[in-house]
Design goal:
Blueprint: H1 2-16, E1 18-25, E2 33-39, E3 45-46, E4 52-53, E5 72-75, E6 77-82, E7 86-93, E8 101-107, E9 109-114, E10 129-133, H2 140-146, E11 151-157, E12 175-179, E13 182-193, E14 196-201, H3 227-235, E15 247-250, H4 258-264, E16 269-270, E17 277-278, E18 281-282, H5 291-301, H6 317-324, H7 345-350, E19 353-356, E20 365-368
Length: 380
């Protein structure tokens, strides 16, 4: 009786399942990598078997409402098994420089999605990058290709993990080329505790961050030792006059200890359009900052949308010499040298203003965010 029931159940399931075949092509009709969303009428998302999946729900925190939790990345062709026939929405993206494709299909179906660029910023001297990647090293090359990024800063050390633990030293090949015009770095650490999140790129040695937070203690409730000690320890390994690494990136300007860092250990860069933003909106999470500052930053960030994060052209060895002489490639409009005035940070963010330091000027000047050059956003 039981085998017959199982066969009947299998037949019912197979009868209900339908296929959606997708072919991803670029402007020259070549296979292209992209991030895909396949949504049913009820909003539920389906994923292709064998594709590079986003992280699953259930992690808690401000990731619970992420629209990406059931998206997936694939290159070329794929097949999505759907629970039933009907209407589905397909969304395909290949970074910000390609037009977003969104269409309705009646499944079962077989369609070709063609992604075309509306601009090529690299040809104009601008380089794209993601300064905050928490994905496995082996997955990162495909992710960089799908998001059309020139650089990915992949974090391998954190307060809860260290993939290099047990090794006598960090890998010497920390800058790795994944494809033409694409690189990733792999000796990067994040100290994310009570005072905020401090991103350290291109470390020369392990700082032991995975051993700082005692077992059973929440990282965002742990403050001692303060993060500035690890920043100073990392910077002490710099070779004077030869390179800017380790590089200190302030993850968000709304962290509790951000003003302290700005005053005592000024960052090399700061994340304004940080990992709380996506094309559907933003996370409402607090991120260790005051609600008033967070809301003010949201209003500011809506006014402009650069194509990428701060200047990271120094990471390409062939550009290192030129960068040290002040001729590094630009990465995003007006992003280089963004520094807030510590005494007025909160007041100016609440007014929707930012501080921009021009090279060669001794004092920063205030410029409203609306005056910054706008970049064309993808329609959502």
């Amino acid at each position: 009786m039981r085998p017959a029931f199982l066969l009947l159940l299998l037949a019912v399931l197979q009868a209900g399942a339908v296929e959606l075949q997708l072919r991803l092509r670029d402007e020259a009709n070549r296979p292209i990598a992209a991030r895909l969303e396949v949504r049913g009428a009820d909003g539920a998302m389906c994923q292709a078997e064998g594709a590079l999946l986003s992280r699953r729900p259930g992690r808690g925190g401000n990731e619970a409402g992420s629209p990406y939790l059931r998206s997936f990345v694939v290159k070329g062709d794929c097949v999505v098994q759907l629970p039933a026939a009907g209407r589905y929405r397909v969304v395909a993206e290949h970074g910000l420089e390609y037009e977003r494709v969104e269409c309705e299909v009646e499944a079962p179906a077989s369609i070709t999605v063609q992604l075309k660029p509306w601009i090529r910023m690299r040809e104009r001297g601008w380089w794209s990058g993601d300064m905050h990647v928490h994905r496995p090293v082996d997955d990162s090359p495909l992710l960089l290709e799908a998001e059309d990024l020139n650089l990915g800063v992949v974090f391998t050390m954190w307060n809860a993990q260290n993939i290099w633990a047990g090794r006598p030293s960090l890998p010497a090949d920390w800058i790795r080329q994944t494809a033409q015009h694409r690189w990733m770095t792999v000796t990067n650490a994040e100290d994310e505790r009570g005072g905020g999140a401090w991103l350290l790129h291109g470390l020369k040695e392990d700082l032991g961050l995975d051993r700082v937070v005692p077992a059973g203690t929440r990282a965002n409730e742990h403050w001692n030792p303060p993060g500035i000690e690890f920043v100073r320890k990392a910077r002490a390994t710099r070779q004077r006059g030869q390179e800017p690494f380790p590089w200190f990136d302030l993850e968000k300007p709304i962290s509790w200890e951000a003003p302290v860092m700005m005053a005592l250990e000024r960052p090399d860069s700061m994340g304004l359009l940080n990992n709380h933003y996506h094309q559907y909106g933003m996370y409402p999470g607090e991120a260790w900052g005051a609600p008033a500052r967070y809301r003010a930053l949201c209003r500011t960030a809506r006014l402009f949308r650069p194509l990428a994060a701060p200047d990271v052209s120094l990471l390409e060895p062939r550009l290192a010499g030129a960068a040290e002489r002040g001729r590094g490639q630009r990465l995003a409009p007006q992003s280089r040298g963004l520094q807030p005035n510590v005494r007025e940070t909160r007041r100016r963010f609440q007014r929707g203003e930012m501080v921009r330091r021009r090279e060669g000027r001794a004092r920063p000047r205030v410029q409203r965010a609306a005056d910054f050059p706008r970049c064309r956003a993808q329609e959502s």
